[in-house]
Amino acid sequence: MRVALAYSGGLDTSVAIRWLQVKYGYDVVTVTVDVGQGDDLKAIEERAKAIGAVKHYTIDAREEFARDYVMPCIKANGLYEGKYPLATALARPLIASKVVDVARKEGTDVLAHGCTGKGNDQVRFDITMRALMPSCTIIAPIRDMNMTRDVEIEFARREGIEVASEAKRYSIDQNLWGRAIEGGSLESADKEPDADAFRWVNVDPKLLPDDSGYMHIEFDHGIPVAIDGVRADDDGDGRGMVEMIEYANEKAGRYGVGIIDHIEDRVVGIKSREVYEAPAALTIIEAHRELEKLVLTSHQLRFKQLVEQQWSMLVYSGLWLEPLMADLNRFIDSTQEYVSGKVTVKMYKGAFRVVARSSPYSLYDEGLATYGKGSTFDQSLARGFVELWGLQSIVANRVRGIQTHHHEDRVMQGVDEVSMHG
Ligand code: ARG
């Protein structure tokens, strides 16, 4: 009997190959999906086979990931709990769908993944796999055996499975949209991460450029189409979007931009200290959000924030295929009709901010906004407006006597002070 295993080449999934083989007696078919993690895919295939996989698939899904997962995230300003750009969360449903494809091809409905029972990834894999293949059986050896990382490392040692030295220090997951570093010393939430946790972002003060750098991002209907000179649709090989994001990761990372360090609420109720590197995600989302502020009305912006929060929560918690996602995406797409224009991000020694933005659909009107001459705004209109705007607050305070009391207190205090000092 065959099982299709989502295989990354890391510790969990390598242990899983051998476990499925020895303890369950399966023929293991491994599936490695390239979502821009930048690993040596040939080496991963060889490793899978050396450990015991009977067959291996490498699937290049980079462009699909960029187009169908990362771009919607940009439009949604997708940041879970206001911080995490959802890199891992976005890739899981795509990986799960490729594993299901392979299982169909291999004529099996037994699927496997290397997730533990403590994280979010099991939620994302299980739900997507069941949604796409309702008949499937899902085996998660690490979760099922309640294995800890130490037990896994010991099992790997006994079975002659090589463990990379980095895997002994951290649990890493990375793709085009970001890099998550977990475990080891990072679990002490009260301590700053060691510098060796970081690979994408320059954390060495001596290596940071002394001059500031700029990123010029051009958006069309809410998605970036060019960053500096790198165009998403350039060479016609369908790789443009991927290259553009890789370019942004490299550049912002060089300026020390892109680290996230926060406390995150996992789906299973655990609070965890999460550390990420996501230079492209942070800069592009910030630029996108700033462009939206230029072209959307205040009403659109306020309502969209609610949608963004819900969108991020659904993606985080493994509900990519929940029908509400499609509804939210339709709303978001509708808001993006005029989100076209140019944004400049300035970066300097780990800090970044938007310093310029423009759009043919800009609602910013210098004539209205200016405090200088040439103003087109009739200030006499403001008086009546302000009176009506505050009307209910003023009435409520009068009826409840609140304002009066506070006012009297303050008058009394003032009188005391005056008499004491005077
Ligand atoms: N906390 C992040 C998330 O839930 C990162 C997970 C990283 N996964 C991993 N297997 N190391 O999306």
What's the structural blueprint in terms of helices and strands?
Layout: E1 2-6, H1 11-22, E2 27-34, H2 41-51, E3 55-60, H3 62-75, H4 87-105, E4 110-112, H5 121-132, E5 137-139, H6 141-144, H7 149-158, H8 165-169, E6 171-175, E7 178-182, E8 213-220, E9 223-227, E10 230-231, H9 240-254, E11 259-265, E12 271-277, H10 279-295, H11 298-316, H12 323-335, E13 341-348, E14 351-358, H13 366-369, H14 380-389, H15 391-400, H16 402-421
Parallel strand pairs: 1-2, 1-4, 2-3, 4-5
Antiparallel strand pairs: 6-7, 7-12, 8-9, 8-13, 9-10, 11-12, 13-14
Helix pairs in contact: 1-7, 3-4, 3-9, 4-5, 9-10, 11-12
Bound molecules: arginine (ARG).
The site of arginine (ARG) has 10 residues, from helix 4, strand 6 and strand 7.
Please explain how this structure is put together.
The protein has 422 residues and is α/β, with parallel strands linked by helices. It has 3 domains: 2-61 and 77-168, Rossmann fold; 175-368, Argininosuccinate synthetase, chain A, domain 2 (Alpha-Beta Complex); 369-422. The chain contains 16 helices and 14 strands. It has helices at 11-22, 41-51, 62-75, 87-105, 121-132, 141-144, 149-158, 165-169, 240-254, 279-295, 298-316, 323-335, 366-369, 380-389, 391-400, 402-421; strands spanning 2-6, 27-34, 55-60, 110-112, 137-139, 171-175, 178-182, 213-220, 223-227, 230-231, 259-265, 271-277, 341-348, 351-358. The strands form 3 sheets. The protein has a 5-stranded parallel beta sheet, sandwiched between helices. Helix 1 links the parallel strand 1 and strand 2 (27-34). Helix 1 (11-22) packs across helix 7, helix 3 runs antiparallel to helix 4 (87-105) and helix 3 (62-75) crosses helix 9 (240-254). The model has no long low-confidence stretch (mean pLDDT 94). The structure holds arginine. Arginine (ARG) is lined by residues 88-89, 120-121, 171, 173, 180, 182, 264, 274.
